[in-house]
Prior knowledge:
Two copies of one chain form a homodimer.
Chain A: H1 7-26, H2 33-39, H3 44-50, H4 54-69, H5 83-99, H6 101-114, H7 118-128, H8 130-144, H9 153-168, H10 170-173, H11 182-200
Helix pairs in contact in A: 1-2, 1-6, 4-6, 5-9, 5-11, 8-9, 9-11
Chain A binds a DNA duplex through residues 6-8, 11, 32-34, 42-46, 48-49, 52-54.
Amino acid sequence: MSAALTRSEKKRQDILAAAKQAFQQEGYDKTSMDRIAKLASVSKRTVYNHFESKEVLIMTLMAEMWQQVMHSPAVHFKPDVPVREQLIELLLREIEAMSDEEFLALNRVAFGYFFFEPDAMKRQLERMGVQETAMMSWLKAASESGQLKPLDANQASTQLHGLIKAEAFWPQMLRIAPVLTEPERVSLAERSADLFLSHYQA
Amino acid sequence: MSAALTRSEKKRQDILAAAKQAFQQEGYDKTSMDRIAKLASVSKRTVYNHFESKEVLIMTLMAEMWQQVMHSPAVHFKPDVPVREQLIELLLREIEAMSDEEFLALNRVAFGYFFFEPDAMKRQLERMGVQETAMMSWLKAASESGQLKPLDANQASTQLHGLIKAEAFWPQMLRIAPVLTEPERVSLAERSADLFLSHYQA
DNA sequence: TTTGTACACTACACTGTATAGTTTACTTTG
DNA sequence: CAAAGTAAACTATACAGTGTAGTGTACAAA
């Protein structure tokens, strides 16, 4: 079913790809519809045949990118596996997720667009932060099982996210550092887990 | 000498204040020179008499905000004071610095302006990150004195900053959470120091 | 106290350009 | 041939920056 794109559908994809690239690199305001058309090798009219306005275009784009990105598998706490091993696994997944080019691209587009609209920004970040819930339930379970000390799951989750985002998200989203390599990710997950467990392991 | 502003100097200040507000709330692109003039209760021509272009205006603004913000006192490691106490003090200072409204405002303006120019963004962040150097030398000294385990000062500094920025910088810069109250700051400094020291204290 | 002078400020019209979105006349493709 | 695409000109608007004629203010000379 995937190669069976009609010409029209292909044009649509081209336009979305062009918009993704342009919005990511230049931002919404500085990207003209003429430029998107040119980048997509499509006439401007065709852009408007598929998307009735620039606003609709970026919204559709963000919605579709969202689809691609959202697949949180939800890791459950297993009482029989060592906490360290589990935590490293969990952190590694989060690091992989935030290192995904598509995820970064979505964030760049959304940040550029919502940066000056705190309410929309907040909603956006809350959607993104669904993972935090998964981590929080893992932390709660690990704590209740007695393998971690009693803790404020919210605080602990924020700490863990702070640790990994400082190296694996913010610099990449701002394009001031390249995406982490696999060994770097493993090292980050291990160091973060070790720091965390030194304090929280029962 | 402070109240002795000529009319011209006052107008200049009004314009900069208006620009600060507008650029912070709406962003560079969406803020017109007409709007700035109106906000400053000044004619558009006066804006151009003081600043030859919009570009010069925002650059001047950022430079002046930079002056106000940059005053890093540099904390030195004292072998005779308990590490925990010193670290909390150091973290608290960093938290205060990043909670400063002027600092946040500068960051919002600069982010909005540089977000899509990675090179300029990088330079900006490197200037901002001067504090990180101070923290790193404290960490090195503390480690060499034997009070902290041997550590990679760079990594350790990133971890500490990750911990505090997750609560005291990113949410505030994005306007999705209010600036921390004094007790919240103390709590954050203590929790971060304790987590860190559980792992790194010798 | 009045008058003269320099200069910054104001109001407003104007130029030039960029850009969202539309229209039209014609072409390509399934 | 019908649906979708193309190129290019067009409308409407916003906005950076300029030019100008006149006004307000500070300050000094008379």
